[in-house]
Amino acid sequence: MAAGVVLVGGAGAAVALHASSGGGDTAGARQPRVVHTSVDSLGLTGTSADERELGARSTKPFRMLAVSWSDAHARLDGTVQVRTRSSATGRWSDWQKLAAADALPDPAEQDRTGVRGATAPLWTTPSDGVQVRVRGGHGARALPTGLTVDLVDPDSAHSASQSGDGGQTAGAATPALEPAAFSVADDATPTETPTDTASSAPEDTPTAADSDPASPSDPAPDSPGSNTPEPPSGSPTTAPDPSSPDASSAAPTTTATSTPPSTPGYLPSLSEAYPSCPGASAMPQTAPSPMPAAPRSTAVPAPPMVSRAGWGADECARDAGYPDYGSTVKVVFVHHTDTTNAYSCADSPAIVRSLYALHLHQGWRDIGYNFLVDKCGTVFEGRFGGAALPVVGAQTYGFNTDSMGIAAIGTYTDLSGGDSASSTIPGAAPTQAMLGSIARITAWKLGMSGISPTATGTLTEGAKDSYGFTYGKSYTLNAVSGHRNGFATDCPGNQLYAKLADIRTYAAGPATGLAVTGVDGPYGATKAGTAYVTGTKATVRWTTGTPATLLSGTEILVDGTPAAKVSGSTSSAAVTLAAGRHTVQIRATHITGRTATSAPVTVIADTTRPTYPTAPSAALRTGTVNTAGIPVTVRWKAADDNGLHAQAATSPTAATLTSSATGWSTTAKAATSTQFTLKATDLAGNTATASVTRTATLVQESAAKATGSWAKRSGTSYLGGYSTSSSSAGATLTWTFKGCSVSWIASRASTSGQVKVYLDGTYQSTVDLKSATTLYRQAMWTKSWSTSAQHTVKIVVVGTSGRPTVTTDGIAVLN
């Protein structure tokens, strides 16, 4: 046993108490500062029993407010409206309706002297002014006495210098906590479940364990429109607004630097339970009685969380000593704080401090929730007492013992889905990050109880005045339930309530929706038919419907054998493949140890180079001719068993070609041996090259045998500085040459005539040289053969009426 730890016995259990609060921290480690909050209460006044108000006035700086009254058991039947003034702009907000608060302590805590009733809180922009009006409902009872508006400054010592940042302190995620979990076989089912209705899932609304006819009726599980027990007028409810501000999923600014919460399996030390506070009178320091049993140690690790010290809790503000403990956590209740979604995740520590301050101001011993989660997925430790232990919170009236409350920071109501309109705070859809973290806490806490998140738990009603429930009766609820399943409320709002089934699935495991989305080779995810094609190096990408925080690791299986292992937060990984055809799958391990394997995909690791079934060949083509560039067409056929990615020409010039290209128009320099080189690249990145070498030669008219009348024309636009023209019908020029391709070259103009072309004495075609614009050195007719041989080309002037003149500029020959 570590030095400084003592064992305290109780109720058949032995639980270790830390002798100091350091938790093993090294000396000199930075300790988080206590962030002091202030609550400024302003009384509401009125001349009639059904009206109270506070006129518009300046106030001390604040970020959160609520309206409260003297008697915690009194209901406020009516409407509470507030508006606030921005300290940055001086502008007043619109009027905002507040619903009654519905997270409540059990009678033992609620019945203490000084406990107040209250509305749900409202998180605001930095403000320095407020106006309040409260109106009783028509025919309703008188408004409660002692109405005040309570304004919370979450960092009162720094408000003057930090009026725009919400006074948040840099909270800290705690180190990973000790493992704890449940073990669930793939075919495991609860040994005791409530009677099934139309759905095979457990009911989300409690059912009486006995046959008492007064027990509440059961709606369909998780149905947002479920008919929860209708509360009397003024009973605590929440309400949505259809508008939904964007919920950022960016990582929070809170960082892991603060003192961790109590290590799971251990109670906080006596010095932590009874902090030394200025001005506090001495009191006996006693361990809990009965002592809570140490939590079971199984497979699921605790989630990272921001400790109470991390979010700046003033431990001297709460009741000194240990909280009450249950025997084990049987049901997780999901709540929302109903404080608006218009917050930055950097504000979350300040929001938690503000809720803490309001709950204390209302006479509670501590913050009511056991844990809180913001929209970025950051988990905050709530009520003091040991994160792993079954601390009795103040969250679901009558069912706080042996349950746990997780509050989603924000508002998740939906007016269109039937939520109450008693509040006008706009609702939003919960983020995946938030749902994942709620599921992560759930898996850990229920795991220590040996309860599957998809199973049920039985709780005993502990309040005599909870509408729709009978004191002392046992009710069976889903292990993950909404607040509305244990109390007459809309909490946690339809948009979050509709996600409870997902939370159960996420928490229980295995991973759902696991699928390979692509296998990338050098050019991304490319396929030959249904198979991905890569080289021996590949990157596998996948997706899963289960948030990454619930996954402990992922393996890439190649032909059923692990080829790579990465963290659960990773969604891609590199693998090395042997040449050939393979199956690739993803196997994800849930934090419970349960695994899921994706459907296989086929991957071909291709190491074979492309081929050229048709070797490159070159031929002269039509176009503009000069000594530096004689028009040439190169033709070929490249192929690959799995497909080509790209083709290119590399000489005599570089050119990008399509993967299906079989021809390339280029040029050759006159009287120069030219190599035409091609490159084919397949889907795996393998390459092959092929080439053909040819020499292009220009042959002028002086080398031709002439008949009829021809005239020489000089000019820089002609090849060699001159050309030959004729307007005499029947005049001919004949060239004799050896080659594999030939083109006849001429000038063109609007007055140009026609010629007949003969090859080796055989008529080929009549070529019309007429052109709207004047063009020089135009290859007008071509002919090619597979091998070089001797040939003759003869042109005959047609003598076209009105435009008989023909100007020729020689021929080009390719060898």
Summing up helix and strand content along with how strands pair, one would put the structural category as mainly beta
Instruction: Give a count of the beta strands, DSSP E runs of length 2 or more.
Output: 44
- Rg estimate, integer Å: 42 Å
Low-pLDDT sequence parts:
1-30, 160-265
Arithmetic mean pLDDT: 85
Main sheet makeup: 13 strands, antiparallel
Taken from the alpha-carbon principal axes, the silhouette is elongated
> Roughly what fraction of the amino acids lie in strands?
35-45%
State the distance separating the first and last CA atoms: 94 Å
Residues in helices, as a percent range: under 10%
In DSSP terms (H or I, runs of 4 or more residues), the helix count works out at 6
List the helices and strands and how they pair.
Elements: E1 5-10, E2 13-18, E3 38-43, E4 51-69, E5 78-86, E6 96-98, H1 107-110, E7 117-118, E8 122-136, E9 148-153, E10 207-208, E11 266-267, H2 270-273, E12 331-336, H3 348-361, E13 371-373, E14 379-381, E15 403-408, H4 432-447, E16 456-460, E17 474-478, E18 480-482, H5 494-497, H6 500-508, E19 515-520, E20 527-528, E21 531-534, E22 537-543, E23 551-558, E24 561-566, E25 572-576, E26 580-590, E27 595-597, E28 601-605, E29 611-620, E30 623-624, E31 630-639, E32 644-651, E33 655-657, E34 663-668, E35 673-682, E36 687-699, E37 705-707, E38 711-714, E39 722-726, E40 732-748, E41 754-759, E42 762-768, E43 775-797, E44 806-814
Parallel strand pairs: 2-11, 12-15, 12-18, 13-15, 21-28
Antiparallel strand pairs: 1-2, 3-9, 4-7, 4-8, 4-9, 5-6, 5-8, 10-17, 13-14, 16-17, 19-22, 20-21, 22-25, 23-24, 23-26, 26-27, 26-28, 29-31, 30-43, 31-34, 32-33, 32-35, 35-36, 36-44, 37-40, 38-39, 39-44, 40-43, 40-44, 41-42, 41-43
Helix pairs in contact: 4-6
